[in-house]
Structures are given as C-alpha cells and as structure tokens.
Amino acid sequence: MLANLDALMHGFTVALTGYHIMLMVGGVLLGILVGVLPGLGAPNGVTLMLPLTFSMDPVSAIILLTSLYWGALFGGSTTSILFNIPGEPSSVATTFDGYPMARQGRATEALTFAFLSAGFGALVGIIVITLLSSAVASFALRFGPPEYFAVYALAFASFVAFGGGAPVKTIVALCLGFGFGMVGTDTVSGSMRLTFGLDELIRGISFLVVVIGLFGLGELLLTIEEGPEFKGASGRIDPRAMLRAAARMPRYWFAMLRGSAVGVWMGITPGGPTAASFMSYGIARRTSRNRENFGKGEPEGVIAPETADHSAGTAAMLPMLSLGIPGSATAAVMLGGLMIWGLNPGPMLFIEQRDFVWGMIASMYLGNVIGVVLVLATVPLFAAMLSVSFSIIGPIIVTVCMVGAYTVAGAPFDLWLAVAFGAIGYMMKKLDYPMAPLILAMVIGDKAEDAFRQSMLSSGGSVGILWSNWLSGTLVTLAILFLLWPFLALLLGRRNAAEVAISPDAGHEETRA
Amino acid sequence: MTLLPKAALALGAVLLSTLPAAAQQSWKPTRPIEFVVTSGAGGGTDVFARAVQAAINKHDLVPTSVVVTNKGGGSGVEGFVYGTGAKGDPHKVIFGTNNAWTLPMVAKTSWTTDNFTPVAIMAFDEFMLWTKADGPYKTAAEFVAAAREKPGTLRMGGSQTHDTDQTLTVLIEKAAKIQLKYIPYQGGGQVGVQLAGGHVEANTNNPSESIGGWRGGQVKPVCVFRKEPFPPGPKVTETQGWSDVPTCASQGIPVEEFNMPRTIFLPPGVPAAAQAYWADVFRRASETPEWKDYVARTNQNGRFVSGDEMRQVIKKEEAETRAIFAEAGWLVK
Asked: For residue range B258-283, what is the model confidence (pLDDT) as tens digits?
C-alpha cells in the first residue's frame, strides 16, 4: 500500500504540468458538453477525440480522454434533472428523483447534490484503485460466466424487487425491455433474432435511442398535453441555494458511502456504471429512512445513483488497465486507444509503464476535482434554461434529441425508432407503466442471457454451476432472496399483524407491507 | 433553329462520354473519406483501421481528411450493409477480416462478397493455442492428450459464434481427433481474461490479444498455427520470445497453417481508377515506419496483397471455409 502511495506521488509529478492541466480542463469542458447532449454520449466523444491523440504522448492522450469521460459523466446528470432526458445511459436513474426536484423548483439544489455526490463517488473509486490495485485485479479474474450472471442477477433483483407500482405492469415493462434488448445477433447461437428481415435491425436496438425516445420525446409529448409550461420549475438563480445544498451534503454521508460501495463493486466486477446506478437507487429506496419520498423528489434518490455511477466509472479503469476488460462502452474505446499508442493492457503495464499508469491515476484525482468545480459553475447557467419559454426550449430539445438519436450509429432508421419510442413512452406514462424496469431489462438482460447460456454450455445444462463456488453461489442466493423479498415481507408482516392484533391500535402498522 | 439543340445535345453527349473516360485514368478523393470499420471501437479491426489512418495522416498520403466510423453491429454485417448503401462512392472504405466472405455464409445478408470491390489485404494475423500459465497443460501435446482422455469436457473459449476461432476449433478437433467444448464470448480480450481466470482451458487468440497476459504470467502460448515457428526476434517475456513457441503440427495438432487476413474493400460499382488509387495509397501506407511498427507490435504477417492476387486469396479461402462450414452445418439456407 505504501509503495502505491509512493507511486501515486510519482504520478502527480507526471500529471501536474501546465500542459496536462490544460488538457484536463479542455477534456472536462468538452465532456460536459458531450454529456449534456443526449445520444452524443461519452463513448462517441472519446471516439471522436481518438485520432487527435495519435500524435500525443500516451500519458497526455489518456489524460485527455479520461478527463472527457469524467466531464461527460457529470454533464449527463444535468439534462436528467432539468428535462427528464438522461444525457448518458448511466444517468437514467438520476431522473427518478432529480426531475421531480426540478419540477418543485429545487433544480439548483438537485444539481448541486448530483455533482457533489458524483465527485465524492469518483474520489472513493480512485482511492480504492490507488490502494488496492493488485488485490482488485486478481479478484476480477475470478469472474467467469456464472459469476457474471450472478452479478447481473443481483443488480437486477435489487432494483426490481424493491420497486413500487403494480406488479403486473412492472412485469409487462420488464418483458418489453428483454424483448427490445434481444433484437439483433445472438452471441451464443450467432443467429439473428427479431430482425424481421430488416437490415437496420441487425445491429440491435440501441439502448440510447430508446432512452431518447421514452424519456426525451415522451416527456415532451406529455408536457405539450399538460400545458406548455415546466410546472413549478423556477428559473431563479440563487447562488445561496447552492451553498445551502452543499452545507446539507454531510447529512447524507451514509447514502454517499453506500452508493460508492455499490459503485466500486459494480465497477470492478464489472457490471458497469449504468447497472450500478440502478442497483444503488434500488437499495437506497429499500433501506433509506426517507423511502416514502422516493420518486417524489428525495435528495437521497439523486445521491444514491450519482455516487454509484461515478465510483463505478472510475473503478472500471482498473480492470481495463490491468486485465484489458472494458467495464463500460467508453472504456472499450480507450482500450483501442491503448493498443494504438503501443501499450498492451495487462499486469505488466503497472510495472513497466509506471509513468503512464500512475500519471493517469493521479490525473483522475485532479480531473474529477476540476470536473466538480467546472460543472458547479455551470449550474446557474443550466438552471436559467428552465426560465426560457417552452415554445423556444421545446423545439430545441426535440432537435437535440433527434441529433442525438442520429449520432448513436449514424443511421436515419434510428430517427424513426426514437419517434416510435417517444409514442410508446407517452402511452406508458398515460397508462402508468413504469419505464425504469424496461430500461434496466434492456441494459443487463442481454448480457445476463449471454452469461447464463455460457454457463449452461460449460456445465452441460446443469443449473448447479451457479452454486459451484462461494462467490457466484452467494450472489445468486442473495438475488433470489431479494426477488422473493416482497413475499417474505408479506408473510412476516402477516405474522406481525397477527401478533399485534390483540392490541387495539396496531392497525396502521401493517400498511407498510 | 432545330439544328442548334441537336448540336448542343451532341456536344453534351460527347462531353458525357469523355467525362467518365477521363475519370477512369485518374481518381482522387475530393471529399472527406470515411473508413468504415466492421467491428466495434477497440476491436481488432478498429485498431487495424486506426493504425492505417495514423500512417496516412502522418505521411499525407491522401489530400482530404479521414474519419473512422464503427459499424460493428451483427458481427460486422452492419458495416457491409452500410457499404452496399454507398454504391459507387469511393470515399467510403470498408475495413474487415475474412468476415467479408464468412458472414454471408452464416447469416442471411442482403449482400455477397462479390458485390464489393477488393482493394488490399494489408496483413495476416496469426493464431496460437493458449493455455493458463499455471494450469495443468504445459504443452499443446499435453492438452491434446487430456482432451482425448476426457472427450468433450475441455472448454475452448472463442470470440464469437461461427467465426475464425470456432472454425479453428473445428479444424483442431478434426486434425487431432479430439472433442472440445466451444464457448463463445465477445472479443478476444475477454476470452484472454477468461483463460487467465481459469474459466476455460484454452483459447486460440491472436498474439496481440494475449501478449499482455503472457508477459504478466497469466497465460502462455503452447503452439502456433504456422508451417514454421516465428523467425527469431526480441524476447517477449523474460525468458521467451515468439520464436520459442513450437508449431502446432509438431505438437500433434496437424493444422499446418491458419491465419486471418486484414482486408480492405470499396463499395460496389466504384470506378477501376478509384480501386487502383486506393491500392496504391495502402501499399504506400504499408511501407511507413508507423505501419511496420504496428505489424511488429501485434506480431502479424505484414504481407501486402492486392488486385488479382487478392481475388485469388479470397476465392481460395472462401472455398475452404465453405467446405468446413458445410460439414459443421453452419451454412444458412
């Protein structure tokens, strides 16, 4: 550990040059812009910048690209909160409470909470990388198909089982999500599924296009119907509101630690930032003291997904460097960059390319601090957007959504898909179907299916492989317990109710179940 | 009065007929160029295309800018579909592997290899058999012996279904008369890590996909699918270099040679001049130090093939692959 701190100090001498700080500021600013625009997410931003880095020193190149990534992670939450349009897939869970807060005129507060907790999560992630790099890398090697499936199942169960709303509608939304996620080439059999002979569907339905349609366009349709005003969203810029919110942050220390822990876990395993934010939100909604307020503008509902999102994003850099496992789509692009700069990811990278690895880790501390400062500086600017008349901002949002949908794959077909999902989103909202399970099923359903079938291939069809070691066994068992929780709670609740039925005023107690 | 339009028409006709002729003599890009990559960002084909892009940019080999776009959906089908849509446009260049002719065999596609204009093969990526560094199989022969003892239990990881890895696995099974259990993952990097973690017993990664794991003492190459071992070169690990790896044939797996061409195509119906132009550009790119460095670093065979020679390579490979696929029952229709 001490050796690592020593190495980190060395890393700071690499990262702390005027040129590198300039790259960080530039990268973060670009990233915020990229993150704010839905569709043009971090992977696209990093891909666009990649050719620029060919002539750079690898350390400078990775500092630029990672800074852009941090910026995008921060920026992605902005539109989630203000317009209910997630700028990044990992910001979907931030809409659940962030957007209600904005509608109550607490946009500044929500943005401040989001950015500060994101910064906190990132810091936790980096500290874990710094101190435990070697232990964590060898832990990640334990993950084969059964373990992957177990991680996805647990993330899934912790979100879904803790959700409210009508169970039948949740199941319908889940099945739709699994169905949409299935479109395209099947990894295991190699055959095309649900493409209906359309060439455009071969690459599958992009999750980003669905988010843009369901959240962005769907929300707009609803706004138009309900009256062209953002209800209650106050555009007044009050710097004191930011300070007040910042002063209240320490009160949520437990939520922040819990979210970071979930994020680090999902970043390393690697389930990815998107699944991490959902899982963290789900657990928070279940265990928080303020659980009744979730979905109605509860700050903890913003803090939980944001800390998890960022700690997962930063922690995922470790398996990328030490094993070559990309924990996210963005990390996959950076991996390609690594190969082009002439570096081979692997355990030796930490020994032979100390300047590169530790320079990058040091830059993660600096880049995230710069990110928090810069993104906080944009809060008044973005909050002011809410006071712009809907007749101006509405068309702009539509334009940005459509541009975003096109940018995902450069395919005109995706524009139609986005419009179709806009209509679906509108209908789901009118009929009170939850959209979160649909999104989650799309994000991890496909990967979970691959992992499950790979497990079945290696075990020859025996489900027992999921319990063949303590790691996957524990995770799967936990997942099943989580899934059954509502029923268990019901049973326990009934017994409690029976026990206390003797006392006359115990009637209110059981409503919770 | 009536003569004039006729004369104008005739003149127009003459002009029209001379224009394409002039274009045939020489062609030059006039708009930004798009390198269409038939894999996702970070995949082997992506790194290939970006290495070419870097070499071209560095030496100003083309007059306009080059953009790389990833169209890797459906194992690369997306990129070729996109290429079909860009019929006659030589500003779109498609980067692939042998997927250009294997995909139409295993999936219902709206295009065939013959639609596309072959430009060049810039390298051939080699294949090796890898096992876990501290695992029970120290040599390929030991691995074969174990597989023979317990048929159908040893797990072979591969990067996709019905791709080069699975094809090679089938060839290994036939040649060594063994049975393996093929498990498809997504991409060679993931397969390498799965082997390092002991979740599969072997894989057939390219050298560049597992060099990091080899140097880090996680996995080791036990044989190479070449007629001869690699020529002597610098050490990769502290004690060994690529040339120390024996051929698979010498280890009881008589698959003499297996490699994967890194191919470049143009969309259907482009003028011959454009084809010649690009073949020339890529030939010059293949002579740059940047490209040589990429080939050396990834330990590929940098043989440059274009024109009729490329058509023959494709024809031969296609026939061989089709025979294997037919026997394995992978062909669609």
From this structure: 999 999 999 999 999 999 999 999 99
Mean predicted confidence (pLDDT) in A418-437: 92
Residue B69 located in a structural domain:
yes
Which tokens sit at B192? 């390498």
Cα of A207 to nearest chain B Cα, Å? 13
Residues B220 and B155 in one domain: yes
The per-residue pLDDT for range A376-427, each reduced to its tens digit, is 988 888 777 777 788 888 888 888 889 888 887 888 999 999 999 999 999 9
Give the domain extent around B141.
128-257
- Among A133, A199, A205, most B C-beta atoms within 10 A, so best to mutate, is A199
Query: pLDDT tens for residues A255-264?
Result: 999 999 999 9
Q: Is B51 on the interface with A (CB under 8 A)?
A: yes
Cα of A276 to nearest chain B Cα, Å:
21
pLDDT > 70? residue B17: no
HSE at residue A126, side-chain half, CA atoms within 13 A, is 24
Task: Compute the distance between CA of residue A136 and CA of residue B91 in angstroms, rounded to an integer.
Answer: 46
Please name the member of A203, A340, A342 whose beta carbon is closest to the beta carbon of B74.
A203
Q: Measured between alpha carbons, how far is B199 from B197 in angstroms, rounded to an integer?
A: 6
B257, B273, B292 - which closes a domain:
B257
Do B211 and A344 make contact, defined as CB atoms within 8 angstroms? yes
Tell whether B161 lies on the interface with A, counting CB pairs under 8 A.
yes
Q: What does the alpha-carbon distance between residue A454 and residue B160 come to, in Å, rounded to a whole number?
A: 12
Mutate which of B80, B164, B215, B220 to test chain A, going by most A C-beta atoms within 10 A? B215
Cβ separation B42–A323 shorter than 8 A:
no
User: ipTM of this model?
Assistant: 0.84
Chain B residues near residue A413 by CB distance under 8 angstroms: none
Give contacts of B 231-270 with A, CB under 8 A.
none
**C-alpha pair distances (Å), B117 with each of A62, A69, A463, A490, B111:** 37, 38, 48, 66, 12
Instruction: Report the relative pairing of strands B155-158 and B202-203 from DSSP bridges.
Output: parallel
In terms of DSSP H, where are the helices of A16-41? 18-36
Q: Are A454 and B185 a contacting pair at CB < 8 A?
A: yes
Same domain, B208 and B239: yes
pLDDT of residue A85: 83
d(CA B238, CA B285): 33
Half-sphere exposure of B136 (CA within 13 A, CB side): 10
Report helix angle A107-140 to A299-315, nearest 10: 40
Residues of B in contact with A350 (CB under 8 A): none
Which CATH number fits the domain that encloses residue B312? 3.40.190.150
A54, B57: Cβ pair inside 8 Å? yes
Preferred mutation among A133, A323, A338, A357 to probe B, highest tally of B CBs within 10 A:
A323
A341 secondary structure, DSSP code: T
Same domain, B156 and B191: yes
* Cα–Cα distance measured from residue B126 to residue B138, given in angstroms and rounded to the nearest whole number: 21
Q: Which residue of A has its CA nearest to B181?
A: A458
Mean pLDDT of chain B: 90
**In this structure, is residue B8 part of a structural domain?**
no
Is the CB of residue B289 less than 8 Å away from at least one CB of chain A?
no
pLDDT score of B1: 41
pLDDT digits (tens, 9 = 90+) for A478-493: 999 988 877 777 787 7
Among B68, B78, B194, beta carbon nearest to A202: B78
3-class state of residue B202 by DSSP: strand
- The pTM of the full predicted model, rounded to 2 decimals, is 0.86
CATH of the domain at B173: 3.40.190.10
Q: How confident is the model over B134-149, as a mean pLDDT?
A: 96
Q: Is residue B46 part of a domain?
A: yes
Identity of the residue in B50, B192, B197 whose CB atom sits nearest the CB atom of A324: B192
